[in-house]
Amino acid sequence: MAIVKSKLLKQLSQNYPNFLKKDLEKFTNIILNEIKRSLRRGDGVELRNFGTFRVKTQKASIRR
Predict the structure, then answer these.
(1) Higher-confidence residue: 1 or 17?
(2) How many angstroms separate the CA atoms of 20 and 26, rounded?
(3) Cα–Cα distance between 4 and 38 in angstroms, integer?
(4) Of 5, 36, 37, 45, whose CB is crowded by the most CB atoms within 10 A?
(5) Is 57 strand, coil or helix?
(6) How confident is the model at residue 1 (pLDDT cuts 50, 70, 90)?
(7) β-bridge mates for residue 47, sequence order
(8) Residues 6+ apart with CB under 8 A from 35
(9) How far is CA 18 from the centre of its chain?
(10) 26, 13 in Cβ contact below 8 A?
(11) Cβ burial 30-43 (10 Å sphere, 16+ → b, else e)
C-alpha cells in the first residue's frame, strides 16, 4: 500500500483541525526524515499499530 504525502497531510488536517497545516507538514517531515535516517544506518523502524520498516538487501539477478 502506498500513500502520497499530500493525501496524508490532508487526512491529518481533517482529523486535527486545531493544528495549522504548516505545523502538520513540519511534524510529518521530521518523522519521515527520522525514519529515512534510521533506515540508512541499517536500523529497523517499528510503528505500533501501523507497520515495520526494514532494509533488505537482495542478490543481483540476471534479467532479460
Answers:
(1) 17
(2) 10
(3) 21
(4) 45
(5) coil
(6) low
(7) 51
(8) 45, 53
(9) 23
(10) no
(11) eeeeeeeeeeeeee
Mean pLDDT of the chain: 91
The three-state (H, E, C) secondary structure of 10-53, written as one string: HHHHHHCCCCCHHHHHHHHHHHHHHHHHHHHHCCCEEECCCEEE
The pLDDT tens digits of the residues spanning 16-42 come to 999 999 999 999 999 999 999 999 999
Q: Which amino acid is at 25?
A: E
Q: What's the confidence (pLDDT) of residue 51?
A: 87
Q: What is the mean pLDDT of residues 3-27?
A: 93
Grid cell listed for 61: 539477478
Question: Which three cell numbers, joined as nine digits, stand for 56?
Answer: 533488505
The three grid cell numbers given for residue 18, joined into one nine-digit string = 486545531
